Amino acid sequence: GDVIHRMLTATQYIAPLMANFNPSYSRNSTVQYLDNGTVFVVQWDKVYLQGKEDVGSFTFQAALHSSGRIVFGYEEIPVPVLQISASQHPVKAGLSDAFMVLNPSPDVPESRRRTIYEYHRVELDTGRITSRSAVEFTPLPTCLQHQSCEMCVTSELTFNCSWCHVLQRYL
Description:
single chain; about 170 residues; mainly beta; 2 domains; 6-stranded antiparallel β-sheet; 3-stranded antiparallel β-sheet; 2 helices; 11 strands
């Protein structure tokens, strides 16, 4: 979205591994991406932890498929993720989404109060992240996948949705 707020970025993420990485430590460290229209891939290659460069480099990636499938791949994880310090930066792996609402402040009428609502989070067990491992997220079916009234009516989804003839979509 167009709203940037520090706390919002802490609650909106797709993170194969979030930690205090320092890509500028080595000339061999890179963060690269590829988008071929079907999959968008971001790869952190030979990145080091800030202040802990002696433990070795990390190589991992996130692949976002147009089908909604997300795959995290871990090529090289030199130390157990549970041993990475979170004192300088949070250590997370998973998915999270949130939104921010600007409400008028009761104390100062011309100002607004920001409220962030985190409505979904999937946290990976970081103890299971190891070299040469992967995690796959497969989206659950939703009512938005229906393209016609007939598909909506015959659906076996258990959501309380209905077909909107004006918008020509399931709501």
